[in-house]
Design goal:
Elements: H1 7-25, H2 35-60, H3 73-104, E1 109-110, E2 113-114, H4 126-156
Antiparallel strand pairs: 1-2
């Protein structure tokens, strides 16, 4: 197969997927959930950092990223909306999480590091709910993204899904 993503992009994609799944499964108030809260916060911070690394990779490998055939204008527009929503979520949901954590407590340690928190949002109740809403919307968009990949594989029978897998055998 010649239409494949560069290996660093593939690795970044699947690390991001793993982190998003982990963060989603460890959701809740990190100040009351112990180790799961620690995992959730570390995962959120990692997703936020990886978002910027991912942008650099996309820029560096721009010419090597496959340009898959778009069936029609509707599909092209939907692709752009979903991609933009995924990227926006990778940035906004962790920021909302940091604000939510700041609203819960004045002090939160990850391992031996004290996280910098904003005291100005302390006790603002809706921020945690906003973070949860954005996180659930993000998961729904991820589901749409995964469904589209499966549709390309099983219905359109093109190589869109295979282009993001490590095993590139047809």
């Amino acid at each position: 197969m010649e239409n494949i993503y560069p290996k660093p992009i593939i690795i970044m994609h699947w690390i991001t997927f793993f982190l998003v799944a982990t963060v989603y499964l460890t959701g809740g108030n990190p100040t009351t959930t112990g180790l799961l809260g620690q995992i959730h916060v570390i995962g959120g911070i990692s997703i936020f950092i990886l978002f910027f690394i991912r942008l650099v990779f996309v820029f560096v490998y721009k010419k090597s990223i496959p340009q898959n055939k778009i069936i029609n204008q509707y599909q092209k527009n939907l692709f752009k909306i979903v991609r933009f929503s995924l990227y926006l979520s990778l940035c906004v949901v962790p920021i909302a999480g940091w604000l939510a954590l700041s609203s819960f407590t004045d002090n939160f340690k990850v391992s031996f590091l004290n996280l910098p928190l904003l005291s100005s949002v302390r006790d603002v109740q809706y921020i945690g709910e906003l973070h949860e809403l954005l996180g659930n919307a993000f998961i729904a968009i991820v589901g749409l993204h995964a469904s589209a990949a499966l549709m390309h594989h099983f219905i359109f029978k093109d190589n869109v899904l295979k282009s993001m897998l490590f095993n590139r055998n047809k």
